[in-house]
Each structure stands twice: as structure tokens, then as C-alpha cells.
Amino acid sequence: MVDPTSDLGEDVDEEDAPECATCGTKIVQLPSHRVVSWVEDGRAHHRHFCSEECLADDDEL
User: Fold this and answer.
1) Contact assessment for residue 47 and residue 32, using Cβ atoms and an 8 Å cutoff
2) 56-61 long-range CB contacts below 8 Å, 24 or more apart?
3) What long-range pairs does 21-25 form, CB within 8 A, spacing at least 24?
4) How many Cα atoms sit within 13 Å of 49 on the Cβ side?
5) What is the per-residue pLDDT for 13?
6) Three-state secondary structure along the chain?
7) Model's pTM, two decimal places?
8) Residue 19 burial (CB count, 10 A)
9) Would you give per-residue pLDDT tens digits along the chain (61 residues)?
10) Are 48 and 35 in contact (CB under 8 A)?
């Protein structure tokens, strides 16, 4: 996967793009892209969302 901190649209192919944790949409050049990050047991975790609506609908946060 491409570095999740890179700017969207910078050489991100759909094949390498992150998927929305709620609906599974590939996130390529979406200005509504949201990432939630947290540290658990000394490891960094993150989840990508294509929109505020998908973020609000996530059951695991």
C-alpha cells in the first residue's frame, strides 16, 4: 500500500489505494477522505473512510 500520509492524488493507483473501512470503496483523490489513527499495545493502527457518513457508520470506533 502507498504511504497513508502521502497527499491523495500523488501517484496513487486504484490498485494501491486504501479502502473505506465501512463500504469498501477505493479512496483515490477523494477530498472527503478521513483517517482515524490510534495506538494500542504499542502499535499504531489506522482506518480509512471515504466520507464523514462512513466514519459515523463505523461499528468498531
Assistant:
1) no
2) 57/22, 58/21, 58/22, 60/21, 61/36
3) 21/47, 21/48, 21/49, 21/54, 21/58, 21/60, 22/49, 22/50, 22/54, 22/55, 22/57, 22/58, 23/50, 23/54, 25/50
4) 17
5) 79
6) CCCCCCCCCCCCCCCCCCECCCCCCECCCCCCCEEEEEEECCEEEEEEECCHHHHHHCCCC
7) 0.75
8) 15
9) 556 555 555 667 788 889 999 999 999 888 899 999 999 999 999 999 999 999 999 988 7
10) yes
Report the length, in residues, of the chain: 61
Residue type, 13: D
Residue with cell 477530498: 31
Q: Which three cell numbers stand for residue 36?
A: 482515524
